[in-house]
Amino acid sequence: QGVLVPGLGTFAVVPEQINSTEEMYVVRRPVFQLDMDMSCLRELVFPTVMIPGDIVTMPLDYWWLSQTNSLPPDMVRGCVEETILLYSFQLRDRQRPAFAFENIGILSCQDNVLCMQFHCSCIAGLESQDTWVALLLT
């Protein structure tokens, strides 16, 4: 399943088949498909990640987020939208702040390359059988 964060991109978990000389592995690994205003990314390079069409993508659930922090859903939506807008303005102004997602990873820009780096604990939480293979792939 994937989650669309409007103005930023989509987080998803995708299965990936890896063939080794001894056996075949199918691991679940997190991916992030960037979907920002291209004017923010003029000088930046970012990896092209395509989420397969068979992955179900849902919009960010503001009501569920509001239940985790006791704020009204409309306020949560406004905070998310303003944060993404601020981040895009910073990128446009050639500032390169890191955007941290708790328990998931960090969207950062190094040497003009914008990429999502997932926390090892996030990857390990998704793939319990072949954790090392998933960590190496991600």
TrEMBL record:
Recorded superkingdom: Eukaryota
Cellular component terms per the entry's GO annotation: microtubule organizing center
Pfam families: HU-CCDC81_euk_2
Domain CCDC81 HU span(s) in chain numbering: 57-129
Name of the molecule in the record: CCD81 protein
